[in-house]
Amino acid sequence: MTAADSNPLAQGESAQGYLADPRNDAVLVYVNGEFVPRNEARISIFDSGFVLGDGVWEGLRLMQGRIVSLDAHLDRLYEGASSIAIDIGMTRAELTRALADTLAENSMHDGAHIRLMVTRGLKRTPNQDPRFAVGKATVVIVAEFKTPKPESKARGISLFTSTFRTSGPDVFDLRLNSHSRLNLIQALIQAIHAGADEALMLDPRGFVASCNSTNFFVVRRGELWTSTSAYSFKGITQGNVIDAWRAAGGVARECDFTLAQVYSADEAFVTGTLGGVTPVTKVDGRTIGAGTPGAQTTRAGELYRQWVTSAIQV
């Protein structure tokens, strides 16, 4: 029996799903300046990230030898760290070099996904108070070969609207890419038990916000609609899709819309660093559009790929 077989939640598709790649068994992980085999990568049980999820992270995509939207990702990482008073202890140039070195150590040139994680570091005792942190921040970089599952693109995924809501910045600012993600995980668990692949989440006012780990779009009369960032994370891939669509002469709106408008949409899709644009064919058991990935979703995915690869080549 595999770990997946014994996991009661291991079912359905995911916008984060990827094909198994045996090369990942031998990857080297960057841990505080050293490269170690993945099965030997360790941090202390007294690390702030383990104790309370006290840290920030970024998910990055390697395409054609370059990291997509690296500057935007580093902007968000350093802004998030600063907002919760974490000193990363590395300049942008040093961190960029660490990313490049991680890719070089693993002979990665394309088709890789990178998880960059920073925590407040070691604590004297496992408690909430950041004043008990000692020493430097913990910096970990995990790079893996990841190809999104083709079945998710071909069939589309299904969503279930969770009863768990997203939050405003006065409660928990989702624009802060924090390790603390429990309410989003709860939403996903609820969706999986309902037989769906991912969770769709509403904001406190009842408007559509985002999915648990991706940004959500509907297509209505040729226009793309996605939520504002008032109650959801501001995705970098989401922004790239909007920019690419508008550059091609299309209309992309960041606006409030309801579940009723989702159910009657022509098409729907989600966006994320790993999967790019992934079609959505069902929401709450209701078929969206024709129930298959639509032409505008396909076009959005193609424009996104052209947009980011063009930026890479500049």
Structural summary, described in words:
With 314 residues, this protein is α+β, with helices and mostly antiparallel strands. The chain is 29% helix and 25% strand. It is built from 9 helices and 15 strands. Strands 7, 8, 9, 10, 11, 12, 13, 14 and 15 form a 9-stranded mixed β-sheet that branches. A 6-stranded antiparallel β-sheet has the order 2-1-6-5-3-4. Helix 7 (236-247) crosses helix 9 (295-313). The longest helix has 19 residues, at 295-313.
Structural key phrases:
6-stranded antiparallel beta sheet, D-amino Acid Aminotransferase, Chain A, domain 2, alpha+beta, 9-stranded mixed beta sheet, 314 residues, D-amino Acid Aminotransferase, Chain A, domain 1, 9 helices
Topology:
Elements: H1 3-6, E1 28-31, E2 34-37, H2 48-52, E3 55-63, E4 66-67, H3 70-83, H4 92-105, E5 112-119, E6 138-145, H5 150-155, E7 157-161, H6 182-193, E8 198-202, E9 208-211, E10 215-220, E11 223-226, H7 236-247, E12 252-254, H8 259-263, E13 267-272, E14 276-283, E15 286-287, H9 295-313
Parallel strand pairs: 7-8, 7-14, 11-12
Antiparallel strand pairs: 1-2, 1-6, 3-4, 3-5, 5-6, 8-9, 10-11, 10-13, 13-14, 14-15
- Element-level helix/strand string: HEEHEEHHEEHEHEEEEHEHEEEH
CATH fold node name of the largest domain = D-amino Acid Aminotransferase, Chain A, domain 2
The CATH class of the largest domain is identified as: Alpha Beta
Low-confidence stretches: none
Count of structural domains: 2
Assign the CATH architecture of the largest domain.
Alpha-Beta Barrel
Largest sheet: 9 strands, mixed
CATH superfamily of the largest domain: D-amino Acid Aminotransferase, subunit A, domain 2
What is the quaternary state of this protein?
A: single chain
* Structural class estimated from helices and strands: alpha+beta
Instruction: Name the overall outline.
Output: globular
Helix content, binned percent: 25-40%
Q: Please report which band the strand proportion falls in: under 5%, 5-15%, 15-25%, 25-35%, 35-45% or over 45%.
A: 15-25%
How many runs of DSSP E, i.e. beta strands? 15
Radius of gyration: 19 Å
- The average pLDDT is 94
State the separation between the terminal residues, measured CA to CA: 48 Å
Total helices: the number is 9
